[in-house]
Amino acid sequence: MDLIKFVEDKETQNELPAFRAGDNVSVHYKITEGSKERTQVYQGVVIQLNSTGANKTFTVRKVSNSIGVERIFPVNSPSILKVEVNSRGAVRRSKLYYLRQLTGKKARIKEKR
């Protein structure tokens, strides 16, 4: 048990701000195209945080050209440069899969005060 904890502590490297499901975040991540590298920003709502330890992930959903796009980011990925929390959402669930069926104003999340 201690060995597993030791290995996971070595693997975890990204210091990300505290965020939960329902928060609107901007994820800055590195994209390598051939020999060039650039930073791309992916902004959307966190619909889930999954797992714990070294293989922890979070899923961010955004609507682009009226099509819902979801992307799963590993928390400990070296390609994630930073995560900014734009707004906190007031939600009562930890997994927001119901947003997939909603469109327009119904898909809004109230901001936490």
According to CATH, what is the topology? SH3 type barrels
At CATH level 2, the architecture is: Roll
Question: Major sheet, described briefly?
Answer: 5 strands, antiparallel
Mass-distribution shape = globular
User: Approximately how much beta-strand content do the residues carry?
Assistant: 35-45%
Mean pLDDT, rounded to whole units? Answer: 90
What's the domain count?
A: 1
Which stretches are low in confidence, meaning pLDDT under 50 for 5 or more residues running? Answer: none
SS content category: mainly beta
**Ends apart, CA distance between termini:** 41 Å
CATH class: Mainly Beta
GO cellular component, one term: cytosolic large ribosomal subunit
GO molecular function: structural constituent of ribosome
Protein name: Large ribosomal subunit protein bL19
Family: Belongs to the bacterial ribosomal protein bL19 family.
